[in-house]
Write a structure and sequence with these properties.
- Two copies of one chain form a homodimer.
- With 708 residues, chain A is mainly beta.
- Among the domains of chain A are: 12-100, Nuclear Transport Factor 2, Chain: A; 114-240, Nuclear Transport Factor 2, Chain: A.
- Chain A is 9% helix and 39% strand.
- In chain A, the strands form six sheets. In chain A, strands 12, 13, 14, 15, 16, 17, 26, 29, 32 and 33 form a ten-stranded antiparallel β-sheet that branches. A ten-stranded antiparallel β-sheet of chain A has the order 18-19-20-21-22-34-31-30-27-28, covered by helices on one side. A four-stranded antiparallel β-sheet of chain A has the order 1-2-3-4.
- In chain A, strand 24 and strand 25 (455-458) form a beta hairpin.
- The model of chain A is unreliable at 684-702 and 704-708 (pLDDT under 50).
Chain lengths: 708, 708
C-alpha cells in the first residue's frame, strides 16, 4: 500500500491529535489555551521532492514524509496571553518545536476576537460618552466593524490593539441585513485587547475641501446625523431595495451532459486536460496549488496569493491607521465563503471543503470553500485558409479554482485558471462594499468620493503579492533560473539596422535575490527557465514567462509607517531564494506591524544566490532556487457606481509557456461543433436571416489552386 | 410612417443604384470600371444628431437625412487606372461629389487583386530563373501570399506594387489545406501592379546569429530545401495531423431555454439590458457600434477599431517592407469570416450579414460576419454580511458583438462587450499562423524564433488604434470634455499629510487636440465627462473613464519610414477634434504610404480646440468635440507554442462609467440561482462530499446581533 500523500488536506482527527499534544505539553492548572489556528506544516522541499519524483515515475516513495501540524495558540497565565506556535508530528504524537514571539509580534485576529469587540466597546463609559455628541434617526442602532490597528507612531509601544469603525443600522425595516455601511459615525474607538478595555475614542474630521485635517471642536449640542432621510437607496438585499429587480435577464444554463472533463481524486488531486495538481487550502491564503504538472512535466511547485495591503489615502488622522493586510491580519482562508451552486459558480462544479479550528482546538469544517469547474473562454485558436475557405477553429477552455473571502465590508474573489494552451492565469476580483467615513452633507472632498449622502468613500489602494515557486520541468535547484527579457529599439545605422525597423531582445540572468519594476516601455518579461533543458525546435531553454503588470505602486511616503510595513508594495517584482516556510510577502506578523520583518525586503537583503557564478557566490546568503513574487494593484478612487456594492474590478496575471512545448499545446483540441447552440431570429426580415443557417464555406476545388 | 433610419445597413439595391450612377457618369467607350468598394457614406454629425434626438424623444425627425453611398473605383482608360471616389445620393440618384487622388495614394488591395499575383509571378521569366537556385522535396509546389509593399526608400517613387511571400506546399498528402507556411522560400518577388509585370526578385538572407544581413552569394548549385523531412508536425487540419485529437474534452453546452435576453430589430438595432445601439459594418473596419445608449442616455456616438500596424523587427532587407496596415491595406470587414454556430460562438446567437461589392459593382452578401450573443462572466458583485452569513451574489453578464478577420496567414478576433455594470470592453485576440521566413537548418537568430525546422518566426509588433467618439449624456459639442486624471503621492508633511499615507488626485482638462502616453506610475486615467451635467450624489461631472494600456509602443527608429507611416503607434492616446469622415488613425491611404497623411498626427497638428478658453481659441483649428484614440499593442516575439497556429493573445480595453450613474447600475440584477448547475462528485469519500449540497448558510438570529 502506498504511503499517504504528504500534500493531503488536513483531517479532522489530525486537528484533535495536534491539539491534544499541545494541551498535554502546554496546558495545566491556572493555564488556559486559546487556539488560533491549526493547519498543516507543509513538508520541507528536500523531503517532498523525492516523494514527488517517485510518485511521478510510478515508484514507491522510499521514505515517508513526516506529517507535521502547526498549532498557533495563546497560552494564558494570570490573564496574560503569550502567543505560541508548536509543530506537532501527529504520526509520532510529539511536539517537534515550539516558538514564542516578542511582544510586538501580533498574529492575525480571529473571528472569536472580532466578536468580542462590539459588546465591550458599547458597554464602556467613554464610548457611551462619545456617542452623546450626536443623535441618530429613530430606530437606528450602532454596529461596529472591528479593524486591525495600523499606523503606529514611531514612539507608540502598545499591546494588542483593535479599532472599531462605527456605523448606524436602520432597524425600522426589521431586517438585520439592512446596510449599515451607509451610515458611518464620526468616531473610532480603540481597544486594548489584552486588558479588554477601551483606551480612547478617536473623533473624526467630517469636513470637505478646505476644511481642517482634524475634527471640529465639540459644540456641546448633539449633532443630528443622517438628516437626509434617504433610508432605502443604499440597500442591496432585494427585499429592502427601493426598486424592483430586473425581470428580463433570461437564464444562461451551462451544462455538461456527458459529464465534466476533470477528475478529482482523493487528497484533492485534480486531473484535467493534461494538467495534474493538488489543491491545498490554508487559513491564511485560502486555496493554493501544489505540484502543478502538465503532461507529466512539473511546472509549478507551489503558487499562491500571499498578501495584500490596503492603505487608505485620506491623510486626516486617525485614517492613517486604516491599512489592512488581509492575509496576515485576518486570513483569506478563514474568511472564505461557503460557495453556492448556481450562484458563485455555474455549470458542473466540484466543491472542496476545509477544516479549521475552534478556539478550543476542535476541528470545524468550512464547507464548500473552493469551487472547481471548467469553462469556455471563447475562440482558442483559429485559422482560415483564404484560398480554400477552410476554417479550423477550437475553443479556449479553462479550469477554474475559485474561492471568495469576506473581510468585513469587502470581498475578494480569487481564481487560479489553467487553460488548454498551457497557461496559468491568476485572477483577482475586488467587490463588496467600499469603506466609507462620515462627511458633512453637502460637502465634497479630495480624499474620496461622496457615494451616498453623508458617506465619503475614501481613496485607497489594493496591492497584491502573488508567490510563484516554479519547477520548470525539474524539481532540482540546479535547473531553474530567472531571466529578465526586454525588447529594445536599435537606432538606425548602416551596419545592423539599415532601414530602422530592426529591434533586439536583451536578456539578463537574475543571479541573486533582487527586486525590479515592470517596464512596459521595454516589454520587460520575466522568463522562468530550465537552464539544463533545451527546446528541441528553438534550441532555447524550456520555460514559462510572465509580464509584470505595471500597475501603480504604493503611494504612501517612503518614510511612512505604511511604506515600512509594505515594502513588497513598492516594486512589481521580487526574486528571493527559496526557504521552507517563507510564504509571506510582508512577513509573518503583519498585524500592528511597524515594519515587514521577514518579508520580501528582508529576504532580498540576505543575498541568496541562484547560479554558480564566482562574482555572486561571495555574497552573504545561500544557494537557493528562485521564488518569484509578482506584485500588482488597483488604485481605487471610488466611483458612485461602486455603491452600495461595487461591480467586480478584475485583474489577471498570465503565466504562459515560452518554448516549454514543441508546438501549440492546444493543437490537439477537438474541432467539434457544439450541437446545442441555436440561432436567435430577428424580428424583421430586413436582416439577413436567410443566411443564418448552413451557409456553406466557400471551398475551392483543388484543381483551382495555382500550382507550379 | 417614420423615415428610414440613417444608420440602416447597406442594402443590395443601394449598391446597384450607386453603381449605375457611377457607370452613367464615368463609364463610356474605351473605359472600364473596376469597382473596389461600395459602402455607406455615414451621415454628417450635424444631420444625424437631430435625427437621433428626435428618435430618442419619441418624435418624428423633422428632416430626412440624405442617403449617400460611397463608390471607390478605378476608371481605366488606355490601360491606365485612375482611382476615383464618388459619393452618390441614392435617393436623388445623383452623384454629389467625385474625388480623384494623387498617384502616391494607394488604396487597399482587393481579393481580386490578390488572386492575380500568383499566376503572373509564377509565369514570369525572372521568377522561373530565381527558383532554379533551390530544389524542393518531391511533390512540393510553390504557393505565394501577396503582401502590400511597405518600406519605400526615400528616393523610391513607384506605382502600385505588390510583393509575394513564397512557400512550398506539400501535395503528396493530397490535401489542399496542407500548411504551406511551414516551408518558406528564400525569395520575395515584387510586381508592378499597374503593368502586371514582375519587377525583380529579392533574395533573402537565411543565416543565423553573426551572419550577414544580406543574402549569401549564389553558389551555382541549387540548394536543397527542407532536408529535415518533417512533413507532418506543422499540420493543423485534423486529417493531416500526426497525433490524434483529444477525446476527453466533454462538451460544455450554453443554452437559454427561456430565450435570449436581447432583441435585434430591423436596421441592426439591438436592445439588451438597458443598452440600445446599432451595429454597423464597413469593409475597412468590420463591425462598428453607433449611438450606444444606456437607459435612454447616450454614451457613445460611434466606437470602432480604426487601424493596426504590424511592423516586423528583422533588420535584414527586404524585411523592412513587411509592415502591414491591416485595416487600410486590406480591410477587416472585407476579410471577415463566415462565423459558424457552435464553433466561433456558443449559445443563443444572432448573426448579421453584410453587403460588399464585386469588381463589377454588383452586391455580394457576406453571410454571418458578426455574431451577437450574451454570456456569463463570473461573479458580478457580491457581499456577505459576516454577522448574519447572508450572501447576496449576482453574475456579471456581457453582450458580445464579435467578428473575425483573416489576413493571409493571420487572424484577429475583435469584440465589443457591453456589460450589466454599464461597462464597455474592446477586446482583440490575435491568432492564426505567425509569419515565418527561411533560416538555415541548425541555426538560431536574434531576429525571431525557430518554430519549425527551417522556419524563423520573426519578431514583430501589433499596434492597434481604437476610435472612441463619445456622447456622454449628450450629443452637444458644448458638453463633452476630456480630462486626464492622475493619482500622485503627497510628500509627508505636518500640514497636509502628517503621517504620509495621504495621496491626491490631479486633473487636467484637455483643451485642444493633443497626444499623451499611458503613465501607470501615476494611474493616468482618461475621463470623458459631460461638463454640464453633475452627478447628484457626488456633485462631479457625469462621465466614463478608460485607463490607457501602457503597452510597448512602436520600436522602429523615429526617422524610419515605418515610424513615419504610423505616428499613431508612437503614443498611447490621441485626442482630436471631430470632423466628419475622419476615421483613420494612420490616414486614409496606408497602402505603400510614405507617411500617414491625414492620420491622428495631422489631426492634432491643425490645432482643433474643445473648450471656450481664450488662451486656446487663438489656435489655428476649429471648435470641435473631442474624439479619443486609444492605442495599445503586443510586442510579439514568437514562442514555439505559437506554432503552427497560435493560441489567442488577448487584450482588453475597458471603458467604464465614472459617476455616470447614481449607484451600481447592476444593483438590480436578479439573484436567481441557476437551476441547471450540478455537483461533480469526487471518486473518494475522503473529500467532503457530504457537505456539497444544501449546506445552510450560518444565519444568525436577529436577537443575537448586538444592539445598543
Amino acid at each position: 500500500m502506498s504511503p499517504p500523500h504528504p500534500l493531503r488536506p488536513l483531517a479532522e482527527d489530525e486537528v484533535l491529535l495536534a491539539r491534544d499534544a499541545v494541551v498535554q505539553k502546554h496546558g495545566g492548572d491556572g493555564i488556559s489555551l486559546f487556539f488560533r489556528s491549526i493547519y498543516v506544516n507543509e513538508p520541507r522541499k528536500e523531503d517532498l521532492v523525492p516523494f514527488l519524483t517517485a510518485e511521478h515515475s510510478g515508484q514507491s516513495p522510499k521514505a515517508t514524509v513526516p506529517r507535521q501540524i502547526t498549532v498557533l495558540f495563546d497560552r494564558i497565565e494570570n490573564g496574560v496571553p503569550q502567543l505560541h506556535e508548536s509543530i506537532v508530528d501527529v504520526g509520532a504524537g510529539e511536539i517537534r518545536r515550539t516558538r514564542t514571539f516578542p511582544p510586538y509580534c501580533q498574529t492575525s485576529y480571529t473571528v472569536a476576537e472580532f466578536s468580542q469587540f462590539q459588546d465591550i466597546c458599547v458597554a464602556s463609559e467613554i464610548f457611551q460618552k462619545a456617542i452623546q455628541e450626536f443623535t441618530l434617526p429613530e430606530g437606528f442602532v450602532i454596529t461596529i466593524d472591528p479593524w486591525p490597528y495600523g499606523g503606529l507612531e514611531p514612539d507608540e509601544d502598545v499591546p494588542r490593539y483593535m479599532q472599531g469603525l462605527c456605523y448606524a443600522r436602520n432597524t425600522t425595516n426589521n431586517n438585520i441585513d439592512s446596510n449599515h455601511y451607509a451610515y458611518p459615525l464620526p468616531i473610532i474607538p480603540v481597544m486594548d485587547f489584552v486588558k479588554k478595555e477601551m483606551i480612547r475614542i478617536d473623533r473624526l474630521a467630517t469636513g470637505g475641501k478646505g476644511d481642517s485635517l482634524y475634527p471640529a471642536p465639540l459644540t456641546g449640542k448633539p449633532k443630528k446625523l443622517f438628516q437626509h432621510g434617504d433610508f432605502t437607496s443604499a440597500e442591496y438585499v432585494p427585499e429592502l431595495m427601493n426598486r424592483p429587480l430586473r425581470t428580463d435577464v433570461k437564464p444562461i444554463n451551462i451544462t455538461q451532459p456527458e459529464g465534466a472533463s476533470f477528475k478529482v481524486h482523493s487528497d484533492n488531486l485534480v486531473e484535467w486536460q493534461k494538467w495534474r495538481f493538488r489543491v491545498g487550502f490554508t487559513p491564511r491564503e485560502g486555496a493554493v496549488l501544489h505540484d502543478v504538472c502538465y503532461d507529466g512535466r512539473p511546472v509549478m511547485y507551489r503558487i499562491s496569493f500571499s498578501e495584500m495591503t490596503v492603505p487608505y489615502g485620506d491623510p486626516r488622522p486617525p485614517f492613517h491607521r486604516k491599512q489592512a493586510f488581509d492575509f496576515g491580519d485576518g486570513g483569506l482562508g478563514r474568511a472564505a465563503n461557503n460557495l453556492k451552486l448556481g450562484c458563485d459558480c455555474l455549470g458542473a462544479i466540484h466543491y472542496l471543503s476545509s477544516v479549521i479550528t475552534s478556539t478550543e482546538g476542535k476541528p470545524e469544517v468550512q464547507p464548500n470553500v473552493v469551487c472547481l469547474h471548467e469553462q469556455d473562454n471563447g475562440i482558442g485558436w483559429k485559422h482560415t485558409n483564404f484560398r480554400t475557405g477552410r476554417a479550423v477553429v477550437t475553443r479556449l477552455r479553462e479550469f477554474v479554482v475559485q474561492f471568495v473571502g469576506t473581510l468585513a465590508n469587502y470581498e475578494y474573489v480569487f481564481a487560479f485558471k489553467l487553460d488548454t494552451a498551457g497557461g496559468i492565469t491568476l485572477e483577482t476580483r475586488a467587490t463588496g462594499i467600499v469603506s466609507v467615513v462620515p462627511i458633512d452633507e453637502g460637502k465634497v472632498s479630495g480624499y474620496g468620493n461622496v457615494v451616498f449622502p453623508g458617506a465619503l468613500a475614501q481613496n485607497h489602494q489594493h496591492i497584491f503579492a502573488v508567490r510563484i515557486d516554479p519547477s520548470i520541468d525539474s524539481y532540482s535547484i540546479e535547473d531553474t533560473a530567472v531571466v529578465l527579457e526586454e525588447t529594445h529599439p536599435i537606432p538606425m545605422n548602416p551596419q545592423t539596422n539599415p532601414h530602422g525597423n530592426g529591434y533586439e531582445i536583451r536578456r539578463q540572468m537574475v543571479e541573486s535575490a533582487m527586486f525590479a519594476d515592470a517596464e512596459p516601455k521595454f516589454n520587460r518579461t520575466v522568463k522562468i527557465e530550465n537552464v539544463n533543458k533545451k527546446n528541441p525546435i528553438s534550441g532555447k531553454n524550456v520555460g514559462y514567462k510572465l509580464v509584470p503588470s505595471p500597475t501603480q505602486l504604493l503611494l504612501a511616503d517612503p518614510n511612512s509607517v505604511q511604506a515600512a510595513r509594505a515594502s513588497f508594495a513598492q516594486h512589481h517584482l521580487w526574486v528571493t531564494g527559496y526557504r521552507d516556510e517563507e510564504l509571506w510577502a510582508a512577513g509573518e506578523f503583519t498585524n500592528q506591524s511597524r515594519r515587514d520583518e521577514g518579508g520580501v525586503k528582508d529576504m532580498v537583503a540576505r543575498g541568496d544566490w541562484f547560479v554558480n557564478n564566482p562574482s555572486v557566490t561571495s555574497r552573504t546568503g545561500q544557494r537557493s532556487s528562485p521564488v518569484i513574487w509578482s506584485v500588482f494593484g488597483l488604485t481605487h478612487n471610488p466611483r458612485v457606481e461602486d455603491w452600495p456594492v461595487m461591480p467586480v474590478e478584475i485583474h489577471q496575471t498570465h503565466i504562459r509557456p515560452a518554448d516549454f512545448f514543441t508546438s501549440n499545446p492546444a493543437l490537439d483540441m477537438p474541432r467539434r461543433r457544439n450541437e446545442t447552440s441555436v440561432i436567435v431570429p430577428c424580428c424583421s426580415k430586413t436582416n439577413a436571416v436567410a443566411h443564418l443557417q448552413g451557409t456553406p464555406d466557400k471551398h475551392v476545388d483543388p484543381k483551382d489552386i495555382s500550382k507550379l
